[in-house]
Every structure is written in C-alpha cells, then in structure tokens.
C-alpha cells in the first residue's frame, strides 16, 4: 500500500516536471511534491537560475500556512526558510524526481536546505548522474532524514535530455500534425502550442530545417512570441540557392548555415529539427527523441506517408497533445 502511495505522489511530481521539459536547459526538468498537514503541494523547476523544484514546493507549502514575502530569488527563499521554519516541516514527506543537489551554483544547495528543515522523509526518483552535483542522499541521511531511493525509470526518461546535452548533445525532431496526419497548409497547431514552440526555440542552440520548407513557407524561425532569443539556423539542403529576403536571414545576432551535411551540429549541444515528411524520413533514425504536436482537428488534406515506430515517453495534454517519444 505504501508503495502505491509513493507511486501516486511521485507521479504528480513527474507530470509537473514534464510541463517544463526542454525549458530548463541547461538544467534538467525536475518535479517535486510535498505532503504536509493533510495537504499535497506540487511544483517543478521552471527555468535555469530560478528556484529548484524542492525549493518551489517548500515555499508553496510554507506560504500557504504562513504570511510570507513575495520572494522569487532562490537565495532569499533559502535564507527565509532557514530563519523562520520553526520545525514546520518535521512531519512533511517530500517526493522529488531527482536527487536534491549538494553543490552551490546559481542557486544554493537543496540538500543543505533540507538538512536544516528536516522533513520526516524524502523519496527520490533517481540519483543525480552528474557526480559534482550528487551527494544529496548522504547529506540527508547524515541529518537523520528518512531517504527512499526508488531508481524509477520514469525519472530517468525525464532527465535523458539533460544527461545527453551535459555529455555531448541532444537532438530532437518536432513535427506538428492534425489528428488524421495532415502536416501541410499553414499553421496546424493551437496558439498555446505555437507559444510553447517559441519557448523551446528560446532555449535551443541550433534549429535545423529543410530547404523546401524555407523556400515555400519563408519563415522567420525566431522566438518572438515570448520575446526570446532566435537560435542559429542550419538549412539542410543540397541546393544552396535561397532568396536572402526570406525573414529568417534578417534576424540579428544569429548565424545561418546552408549545408548538405549535418556536421555543423557538432558545435552545438541542444538541437531541434523542424521539418516535414521528407526531412523526417531522412533523419528519423538520427535523432534522440521525436516530439509530435497533435492538434484535435481533422483536415481534408493529404496526410504524410512513412513507416516508423517509437516508444512514447510522455503525453502532455494542452490545447493539443504534445507527444514525447524515442
């Protein structure tokens, strides 16, 4: 029964973390849940440099039961909780997808904060694969906190992009389609999904696109919807002849490469490929992950035709379905 309870509470943390997948680059996506005074709180790490998942969920819980300042800075929250916790968390149970960090970087150590707050228990989905960040389990145990390490495969899947881009690079293919597989004819995705794609573009280092898409759609391929940075562009094409008045060539502070090979990606760590049927056929076995944005609409258009299979890692339900697979 206890294992079932752990699974449910960890599942809440996992699902919350997936909402911010890719958006935490270069950090991993991490979620946390906290049970205290018969209430459940759930949060996640939302972007690099901001409070980690554990800190967000601790702050949410403490602020629910106490009047607190409107802090958003990690160091301020850590300091405030250390000074004012008054043993509030001693009966709390925390569930976190990744081992609390032991090091101090852009944010202070979550493990050292928990050592002071002393929750009753911390259940961890998976140990941190980065040695310089690990050690949180030992810090918690030495503080007398009950630690349960699950080695949950779902938590490994969640941080696989982080593992890959930390060591080398991570590449994924993004394809938007209607429910019946149409991928042509202008915008297909909802406004919500278009905004999400722009948030992701703001984080990636390089965007790869096919030459035909550039010539036909004449895109900008920036992150203007979120006032974000525009990634560098690799136009993957044998034909090097392009109209340089196409908007993507006019974006400041970006590099645009036109190549018939993918060697350029070796200088980047986080790469998204946006394309259609032809590019997908060429690169489907080259990428680490595939992300399908499936809009709940049926179009009277020709759908794409190819053969492929993949493992579904997660389905994020928004206005559209965002399906993460590999």
From TrEMBL:
- From the record, what ranges are coiled-coil? none
GO MF annotations, alphabetized: 5-amino-6-(5-phosphoribosylamino)uracil reductase activity; diaminohydroxyphosphoribosylaminopyrimidine deaminase activity
- Which InterPro entries would you find in this protein's record? CMP_dCMP_dom, Cytidine_deaminase-like, DHFR-like_dom_sf, Eubact_RibD, RibDG_C
As recorded in UniProt, its EC number(s) are 1.1.1.193, 3.5.4.26
The record places domain CMP/dCMP-type deaminase at: 4-138
Gene3D superfamilies, alphabetically?
Cytidine Deaminase, domain 2, Dihydrofolate Reductase, subunit A
**UniProt entry tagged with the keyword DNA-binding:** no
What biological-process terms (Gene Ontology) are attached? riboflavin biosynthetic process
Q: In which pathway does it act?
A: Cofactor biosynthesis; riboflavin biosynthesis; 5-amino-6-(D-ribitylamino)uracil from GTP: step 2/4; Cofactor biosynthesis; riboflavin biosynthesis; 5-amino-6-(D-ribitylamino)uracil from GTP: step 3/4
Return the protein name.
Riboflavin biosynthesis protein RibD
- Supply the SUPFAM superfamilies for this chain: Cytidine deaminase-like, Dihydrofolate reductase-like
What keywords appear on the UniProt entry?
Hydrolase, Multifunctional enzyme, Oxidoreductase
Quick one: which gene encodes this? ribD
Physiological role: Converts 2,5-diamino-6-(ribosylamino)-4(3h)-pyrimidinone 5'-phosphate into 5-amino-6-(ribosylamino)-2,4(1h,3h)-pyrimidinedione 5'-phosphate.
The species this protein was found in: Caminibacter mediatlanticus TB-2
């Amino acid at each position: 029964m206890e294992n079932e309870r752990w699974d449910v509470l960890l599942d809440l943390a996992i699902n919350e973390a997936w909402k911010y997948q890719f958006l935490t680059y270069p950090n991993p996506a991490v979620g946390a849940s906290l049970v205290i005074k018969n209430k459940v709180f759930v949060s996640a790490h939302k972007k690099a440099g901001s409070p980690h998942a554990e800190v967000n969920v601790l702050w949410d819980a403490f602020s629910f039961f106490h009047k607190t300042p409107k802090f958003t800075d990690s160091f301020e929250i850590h300091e405030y909780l250390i000074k004012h916790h008054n043993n509030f968390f001693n009966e709390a149970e925390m569930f976190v997808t990744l081992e609390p960090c032991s090091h101090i970087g852009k944010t202070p150590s979550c493990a050292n904060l928990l050592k002071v707050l002393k929750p009753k228990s911390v259940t961890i989905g998976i140990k941190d694969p980065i040695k310089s960040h690990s050690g949180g389990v030992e810090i918690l145990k030495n503080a007398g906190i009950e630690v349960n390490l699950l080695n949950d495969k779902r938590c490994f899947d969640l941080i696989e992009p982080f593992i890959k881009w930390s060591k080398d690079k991570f590449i994924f293919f993004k394809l938007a389609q209607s429910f019946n597989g149409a991928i042509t004819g202008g915008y297909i995705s909802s406004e919500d999904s278009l905004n999400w794609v722009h948030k992701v573009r703001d984080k990636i280092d390089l965007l790869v696109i096919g030459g035909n898409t550039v010539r036909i759609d004449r895109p900008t391929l920036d992150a203007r919807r979120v006032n974000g940075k525009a990634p560098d562009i690799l136009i993957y094409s044998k034909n090097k002849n392009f109209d340089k008045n196409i908007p993507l060539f006019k974006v400041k502070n970006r590099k645009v490469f036109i190549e018939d090979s993918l060697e350029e990606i070796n200088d980047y760590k986080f790469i998204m490929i946006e394309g259609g049927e032809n590019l997908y056929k060429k690169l489907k076995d080259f990428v680490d992950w595939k992300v399908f944005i499936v809009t709940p609409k049926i179009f009277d258009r020709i759908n794409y035709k190819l053969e492929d299979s993949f493992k579904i890692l997660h389905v994020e339900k928004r206005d559209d379905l965002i399906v993460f697979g590999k």
